[in-house]
Design goal:
Two copies of one chain form a homodimer. Helices cover about 45% and strands about 10% of the residues of chain A. Chain A contains seven helices and three strands; from the N terminus they run H-H-E-H-H-E-E-H-H-H. The first copy, chain A, has a three-stranded antiparallel beta sheet with strand order 1-3-2. The radius of gyration of chain A is 18 Å and the shape is globular. The interface between A and B is large, with 43 and 39 residues. Chain A binds a DNA duplex through helix 4.
Chain lengths: ~120, ~120
Amino acid sequence: MARAATTSDAFNAVAEPRRREILEFLANEERPVGDIVLRLRLEQPSVSKHLRVLRDVGLVRVRREGRNMFYRTNAEAIRPLHDWTGEFARFWRHQLSSIKERAEAKVKHGQAEAISFKEES
Amino acid sequence: MARAATTSDAFNAVAEPRRREILEFLANEERPVGDIVLRLRLEQPSVSKHLRVLRDVGLVRVRREGRNMFYRTNAEAIRPLHDWTGEFARFWRHQLSSIKERAEAKVKHGQAEAISFKEES
DNA sequence: TTGACATATGCCTATATGGGAATGTATTGT
DNA sequence: ACAATACATTCCCATATAGGCATATGTCAA
């Protein structure tokens, strides 16, 4: 068998980096497809296809307004991922991973892996 | 191009349901491969291959003891996923995801729509 | 060394993918 | 009606699976 479909669940859908970028971009407010194309610098068909996947798993919602399709992130659909990963929180608090990791942690202390949701460009 | 490799990052690695099960099983304590085989009822080669993927992205650590390979989940590697999904928490708190929810919200608090759907040219 | 055991890797195949290019569809303006 | 605009869909293709099966590697015991 092959890999599970990208549309099988939110886990598979967000595995694609571009789709994560789209979700970040659409988190604050709804946007027409054209805006996403400009922002991510992808071909329009690619964006439409990514949106199709996100839509199929409920990660985005869409609304038509004239010729435009306004998409927005449906944060609720991301919640299961947050919940699942959160189950491991108690372990990363009490676990001493490895000597090597501790050393790395000290070195790159500022690398907090924070994702920023830029409003406009 | 095809899909990104399962070993490209934790997002892709955990997209596979079986690998998530493995991570859950190995969260509390280390286990030899044989235990995972029995637990998940998969063929041993499949388990080994899944473990290889998880190992490549740092989601599990391994230790040899005689003929056995003891694997355990490295929760730290799951943290980035938790952090990323957590960025959307403020949205699922303020967003009304469905008509049903909106109706309930109105009844309970008489709360107005919090998200502004701004238009842009 | 030989054999049993535990695990890893290689090979094969059906399947789904993401990007590019072309085309289809819906809506608006004239 | 017709052209333009905004998206969506289809087709093609190189690539990476995941599972099944066979085989290789590594370790221990006799």
